[in-house]
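To: structure subgroup
Subject: Chain for Friday's discussion

All,

I'm putting the inputs and outputs inline so they're searchable in the archive.
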Amino acid sequence: MELYCAVCTYRQIIEIGQQEEWKGFPSVLTYGMESYASALPFLFVPPYQEPLVSRQKIDDRIRAELIRTYHAHIEEIEDGWVPHQYDVFRCPTCQQISTRFWCALFLKGAIIEPVHRCEQDDSVLVRLSLDELTQTPCPSCAEQTLEIR
């Protein structure tokens, strides 16, 4: 999908949802091979190789922590099911919009989700729905004229 401003020249490609090549969680965080569904051999991905969910969408520290948490609490996670997808996030400080990997580990008494930070100012990014996205000010001109096509 393309996000664009009706007033200025701001344009950005955004991704939402799961990709066709994705399999189950947590293998999607590594190379996506079902033979490595446990992902234990790959708590981190070597820097010279690009994982299935790219480093632009989730950093390696968060990636490893999600895999560790999943395996530490696998008995609590019903049928091992973890919702996971690309979602749109916005920085509350600089208003930059980006696509990031989101998932939720539903544990007894807690929900574990990745916490993404802005590369420019280190603020915690806020997850947006598509409805919220069109009500968000343009990162370039600050007008509330963002549209999706």
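Points worth raising on Friday:
The chain has two helices and eight strands.
Residues 6 and 20 are 31 Å apart (CA to CA).

D.
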